[in-house]
Amino acid sequence: MTAINLNESSVRELNEKLQSGSSGDQFSVNNTVGKHALSVGLTSEINVEINGHVGYYCAGMNQQANIVINGNAGPGLAENMMSGEVRVTGNASQYAAATAHGGLLIIEGDASSRCGISMKGVNIVVGGNIGHMSAFMAQSGCLVVCGDAGDALGDSVYEAKIYVRGEVKSLGTDCIEKEMRDEHKKELKELLKQSNMNHKVEDFRRYGSARKLYNFDIDQVDEY
Q1: What's the pTM value of the predicted model, to 2 decimals?
Q2: Over the stretch 81-97, which tens digit does the pLDDT of each residue have?
């Protein structure tokens, strides 16, 4: 285990060390005090444990790395993530996993607004609640919410799947409740298992696209 103290090393030095790591390497990052852009652009199967709260864009563009944040995360967590796993033991601010293409993001607490905005294949599991406009224009992947969802969930969603255990304040444009078929139950069960979330699949409902906005329709012009 390589320990990195941000009272002694700069963020640039931290990221250079992590980016040069080899598969299987283990790193511990301490004294984060909410600093921004920690552990970004990692491309190897390394393990990073961050002890403390982090600021903007932590774990951005992650590929293959396994990152655990023991604290809360600021805006843009795991933005444009490609693969690997990112886990936050606390809460996450707005637009977590924006435009992310793959991998698994786990937020054990709550997530703020626009969680999973324009997600493109990532799987997101939130142990608590999510804010408004989450999964806006979500294209593919899964958003699992073990708590409640705010206003305009799934607005203009494409083919992403949204599973919510609690209440949904309102659905966004072209987002509807959909049938939970066997393949969805199997997918959800696996995501809950991977995330260590102890909930019953039967307690969740599925939401997705009504597909009314896929092609321009003059009768739907007010919805665009």
Answers
A1: 0.95
A2: 999 999 999 999 999 99
